[in-house]
Specification:
Length: 617
């Protein structure tokens, strides 16, 4: 939520910053802004809307400067307009700030500053912060770094900030608590960003700031770059330099019209990458180092709690079914936002699995902290290497699907389910809760997934054809049973988030307790009715819909004629193990949502009001 990028060095800052903003736009696109430092002046350009709107605004303007900060906003405090856009100046335009997060106690601070005669030009908590820093700096006659230290020690909330001063154009101060920041170390230049995507084309050397870190980034008079990191207690830290694994082609659309479509089509490869080095088909073995190193925690626990948000919460539900079936351990699934605030009972021998694509979701991070405070062991399943959640958890597994840029999650979901199954297989073998045959069958099924995903992607044209029929539907119902119930939730979420059609997912049997009242000839009902589990039961549910004239779109196993004959539209996917259907059947659901959204001319990669990385609660 909100993207931050900053540059300090010999080059012109503007082209680096604007490209960086494009890379970070998935984090928010309510407004965009930039501040360039030139000739002891801070020049801000900002605009409501997308980064392209900002580019339009600055055409023909003077964009010189070797230092600058830039921001793409997902609005929290204050409507998304020009004056609430970042960067924000302090009084007299001495300082400029960009911020990702929420300053919770901004109201009393603002009152105090108003009392001191300061004036405000926006409704944001961010402007209050920069004014507060400036006020402390002047009142105490201290350096900017010292003022940032003093201000942040009084601030409650979450932040990733970058501040630049007109009097010291060779310095940027950055700080984080609860929102991510990465520093890139180049040849006599320094970069700062919310994630590594704006940095990767300039340098592979990065430092991930930790909560409480305050970084002073400087270009010295001899042109060399200098970086000093201290914590809130002013203790100097020696940061660890990481080498980025990412490459540039991962961040481009690769010939597809949208990132989402590219990411849907990448899934045969991403599942292969996720399995690589973990599954050995010849030796019939699954090995996840994080699980092997901590197997006692899993084997001795009385229960597992999985916590996540959004799509990751749906993969958690699939995980519940997989882990209970293969391990015979009770599993609970909690929305992180509920887990963190309610009076949760956590035992020290609990194992908590936290799932997150971005590794930055604020509620999930808070849930992890709560679990740790109560002595539980926390295992992460994340995609973004080096993000906050993998660093906050005791151990974990990366999904390794590469950057997911489309706001609607696709390839991350399928890989999360894949990791959950590998975890369950590893542990079930240790626990002896799985027969050798079943273990081998499931390994085979996992290994054959990429080829089956490729086959399923060939359904794209068929799905596009009938998407046209449903483009202007106002509602959709998604039904599934067993492993396909969480998938029904995920299918409905995909449709509503990118096409703005109201859609609900339901366990098929629950339909008769309410949603059935909505069914008429106008209501498309998508039923995932693959051939295992409660197949006969779902056939009955389809009959119930038909009896009320609902239109059936079914996802069936190849060769199924029964459900096909009951359906208005039918999509047949390759046969696979029941617990792998959520992976395979995701493809038609993702494609259906995608095509409907494109036909409706919606912005598929950046749907309204949403953001990819939700770093506020
Ligand atoms: C946002 C995204 C979703 C994502 C959810 C959880 O709402 O738009 O696609 O599923 O956050 O994010 P996480 O990174 O924790 O998986």
């Amino acid at each position: 939520m909100c993207g931050i990028v900053a540059y300090l060095g010999k080059k012109e800052a503007y082209p680096i910053l604007i490209k960086g903003l494009h890379r970070l736009e998935y984090r928010g696109y309510d407004s965009a802004g930039i501040c360039l430092s030139d000739n002891k002046k801070l020049v801000i350009y900002k605009q409501r809307g997308k980064v392209s709107d900002l580019e339009e605004l600055v055409k023909e303007r003077d964009l010189s400067g070797h230092a600058g900060i830039a921001h793409t906003r997902w609005a929290t405090h204050g409507v998304p307009n020009q004056c609430n856009a970042h960067p924000h100046y302090s009084e007299n335009e001495d300082l400029a700030i960009i911020h990702n997060g929420i300053i919770e106690n901004y109201t009393p601070i603002k009152q105090e500053l108003l009392h001191e005669g300061r004036t405000f030009h926006s409704d944001t908590d961010t402007e209050v912060l920069v004014q507060f820093i400036d006020y402390i700096r002047i009142k105490n006659n201290v350096s900017l770094l010292e003022a940032v230290h003093l201000a942040l020690s009084q601030v409650i909330g979450a932040y990733a900030i970058a501040i630049i001063s007109k009097n010291d154009p060779n310095t940027i101060i950055a700080a984080r608590k609860g929102s991510p920041l990465v520093i890139g170390i180049g040849e006599d230049e320094l970069f700062l960003a919310s994630d590594a995507t704006p940095i990767v084309e300039h340098t592979q050397k990065v430092i991930y700031l930790e909560d409480g870190d305050i970084a002073e980034m400087r270009i010295l008079p001899d042109g060399k770059a200098k970086l000093d990191i201290t914590n809130l207690e002013k203790v100097r830290k020696t940061p660890l330099i990481h080498k980025l694994e990412m490459n540039l082609s991962m961040l481009e659309k690769g010939g597809f019209p949208h990132f989402m479509l590219k990411e849907i089509f990448e899934q045969p490869r991403t599942i292969r990458d996720c399995l690589r080095g973990r599954i050995n088909a010849e030796q019939n073995n699954v090995a996840l180092s994080g699980i092997i190193d901590h197997k006692d925690k899993f084997l001795n626990t009385r229960r597992i709690i999985i916590t996540a948000c959004g799509t990751s919460w749906h993969s958690a539900l699939v995980g519940e079914y997989i882990l209970e079936e293969l391990l015979h351990i009770p599993v609970e699934v909690e929305y992180s936002s509920e887990f963190r605030y309610r009076d949760t009972v956590i035992f020290p021998d609990d194992v908590i699995i936290a799932i997150s694509q971005s590794g930055e979701t604020a509620d999930t991070l808070a849930a992890i902290e709560k679990a740790k405070e109560n002595g539980a062991f926390v295992y992460g399943i994340c995609n973004v290497v080096g993000s906050s959640i993998p660093r906050a958890t005791h151990s974990g597994t990366y999904t390794h699907v590469g950057p997911e840029i489309g706001v609607a999650s696709t390839k991350a979901f399928t890989a999360q389910v894949c990791v959950l199954l590998m975890m369950a297989l590893c542990l079930a073998k240790e626990k002896k809760t799985i027969s050798e045959k079943r273990y081998v069958d499931l390994i085979d099924a996992l290994c054959s997934l990429p080829a089956k995903l490729e086959q399923t992607l060939k359904l794209d044209e068929q799905i596009f054809d009938f998407s046209k029929i449903f483009t202007y539907s106002r509602n959709f119902l998604y039904l599934g049973r067993g492993y396909n119930y969480p998938l029904a939730l995920e299918g409905a979420l995909k449709l509503k988030e990118i096409s703005y059609i109201h859609a609900e997912g339901y366990p098929a049997a629950e339909m008769k307790h309410g949603p059935i009242a909505l069914i008429d000839a106008e209501m498309p009902v998508l039923v995932i009715a693959t051939n295992k589990g409660s197949y006969d039961k779902i056939v009955s549910n389809i009959q119930e819909v038909r009896a009320r004239k609902g239109r059936i779109i079914s996802i069936v196993t190849e060769g199924d004629e029964t459900v096909r004959s009951l359906s208005d539209f039918c999509i047949a996917i390759p046969e696979t193990e029941e617990m792998l259907v959520p992976i395979l059947a995701s493809i038609p659901l993702q494609l259906l949502a995608y095509h409907i959204a494109v036909l409706k001319k919606c912005n598929v990669d950046q749907p309204r009001n949403l953001a990819k990385s939700v770093t506020v609660e």
